[in-house]
Design goal:
With 391 residues, the protein is of the alpha/beta class. The chain contains 16 helices and 14 strands. It has helices at residues 12-25, 56-59, 65-71, 74-80, 82-93, 112-120, 136-149, 163-178, 198-201, 252-260, 266-280, 283-286, 304-312, 314-319, 326-363, 366-390; strands at 2-7, 30-35, 52-55, 97-101, 105-107, 123-125, 156-160, 182-183, 188-189, 205-207, 225-228, 232-235, 238-239, 242-244.
């Protein structure tokens, strides 16, 4: 069976751990590495556990690839290419089944059951949670978080190369090519929120409820990890298939682990083992490497606000054929970055005036009081408008 993951260079150490653990438990697995970046100069596939390397620039087809790559932050980019990558690999290899795994996953058992499931199903997904939360804290940590970020975790999906599987992939890829952004207020969270409606649109999607798949901090409230490296890991008494070590770089992984287990418990030992493997694979050297689309051609860094302005303002989008160029850089600095600095200064001055007029209208009487209250309300409205721009 064929597997793939999607990375920029900073995630290469994690992808190496994924490939190593996958092949240790599944010797016949074929591993594809999808890269939206330049790999290190000393990267040599003959010394890696990857069988194929695919560069996103080679299979992403748009009217203007420079615009498309400019629009996306690093996380948005790595997720936006997943549908296209799956279609590309299926076409190039003619394999009958493909599985995606996030680079921060470790595999700890035989994954042949996934192939068996795909014999009778075209798409496999795993929910973040498969049992109801039993405490208010877990409702907030788990269920509300899933409502915001997506019911299904797209750190894993599996597709069969048949008519239904391709229907799903083509639909999903169409959405990702145009709407793969971290924009929760508008109902989007990269590639993942689209999965919420997939089972409603496609009756051939199978939801895996087995607890041994895609174990992570978001479902530890109902999944008890036991065992050790020598004798193997189990979850709720079943062999652990794969664990999703999400949040390592931000530190969130340890914070969430502490809610469910004490140091020394098996889940902590598993995480520490993974952390050591990750550093053995080059995390210290590569973990903070910035992806190549983070910069303008002059070397200046692109801000997320500049990306957002570029994709949301059609006049700007249509004017700049090469948004990485110096002309676009100068426009962004004049109309986005510098404007934001000015508005931050303005909001400080307005806040001071707001306090002043609030004080004055409270101590004043009659017509004077009304005048100061009107000025106070006007300033509050100005502050609200600037805050909307700054968000």
């Amino acid at each position: 069976m064929h597997f793939f993951t999607s990375i920029t260079t900073c995630y290469l150490p994690k992808a190496r751990v994924l490939a190593y653990t996958l092949k240790r438990c599944n010797p016949d697995a074929v591993m594809h590495l999808v890269v939206s970046d330049n790999l290190p100069e000393d990267f040599n596939i003959d010394k890696e556990d990857f069988d194929y390397v695919w560069y996103a620039e080679d299979f992403i087809k748009t009217d203007n690839n420079k615009k498309w790559f400019f629009e996306h932050s690093v996380v948005e980019l790595c997720t936006a290419v997943k549908g296209a990558a799956a279609l590309h690999i299926l076409k190039e290899t003619e394999t009958d089944k493909i599985v995606y795994l996030d680079p921060d996953i470790g595999v700890f058992d035989d994954l042949t059951p996934l192939s068996t499931m795909l014999d009778t199903n075209s798409v496999l997904l795993t929910p973040h949670q498969t049992e109801p939360a039993t405490t208010r804290q877990n409702v907030m940590n788990d269920e509300i978080c899933s409502l915001m970020h997506g019911v299904y975790n797209f750190g894993f999906f599996a597709v069969k190369n048949d008519e239904n599987g391709l229907r799903f992939l083509n639909w999903w890829n169409d959405r990702l090519m145009e709407f793969c952004y971290d924009d929760i207020p508008h109902g989007l969270f990269t590639d993942q929120k689209w999965g919420d409606i997939a089972p409603a649109l496609f009756d051939f999607v199978k939801i895996i409820h087995d607890p041994e798949y895609n174990v992570a901090t978001w479902n530890l409230s109902h999944r008890k990890l036991t065992g050790d490296e020598k004798d193997g890991w189990k979850v709720n008494g079943r062999p652990l298939k794969f664990y999703h070590f999400t949040g390592f770089d931000s530190g969130d992984h340890r914070v969430m682990l502490a809610l469910f287990a004490k140091k020394g418990d098996p889940v902590w030992n598993l995480s520490l083992m993974y952390e050591k493997m990750m550093f053995d694979m080059g995390q210290e050297e590569l973990g903070k490497v910035t992806y190549k689309y983070a910069f303008y051609e002059n070397g200046e860094k692109i801000t997320n606000k500049e990306r957002q302005v570029f994709r949301e303002r059609l006049d700007v989008y249509n004017y700049f054929d090469n948004p990485f160029g110096n002309e676009c850089y100068l426009w962004m600095k004049a109309n986005v970055t510098e404007r934001k600095k000015t508005e931050v200064g303005d909001i400080v001055k307005l806040c001071n005036k707001r306090l002043l007029y609030k004080f004055l209208y409270k101590i004043s009487l009659f017509g004077v009081r009304k005048r100061f209250k009107a000025k106070y309300k006007s300033i509050v409205m100005q502050i609200d408008e600037i805050e909307k721009i700054l968000k």
